[in-house]
Amino acid sequence: MGIYEVVMEEITVYTGLSPAAFFTIAGMMVVVYRYVTGMFVAPEDYNKPPVVSSANSELVNKYFNPTTATTPTSIQVGDMTEQELRGYDGSDPNKPLLMAIKAQIYDVSSSSRNFYGPGGPYAMFAGRDASRALALLSFKPQDINGNIEGLGPDELQILQDWEDKFVEKYLKVGRLLNPDPVPQPTQETKQT
What we know:
alpha+beta; four-stranded mixed β-sheet; rod-shaped; single chain
């Protein structure tokens, strides 16, 4: 008995199928596997931009190909007023996107132009001191300022968490002159 006959007999004994049915099912499984896996992106292609027409190539380069997108280099701006800070809101693509927390100015354009730039979900914070809004977790226009008076200990802790994230993620490039008053911790807030 040759190898062929042994394999065919074992397929019938093990699966209960005829060899023809077994190989038909196995072939169909390979085809379905290849079809389904072809619907997903290969790991090496994950960060590549999708293939699109040339009409959309500017959009693709802007969002998916940071090496060709125009990203201004970070600069040290030093001390500036809140009015001067508003000029760094993303309306001028040649200027960095700046945002302040507790009167400290951070360059948020390095990796977050899609978030803080025009049309982004956090665009209203760019060019502003957003301390109060971040502490309150608010998107209300009246909360987008540096005044943190009247905030409770929990809100001040939230603001501190935001500041820690900004210190870790973004470059500090300056500070605001004459910012809204920053209250000193009271005995009540020191105990928490």
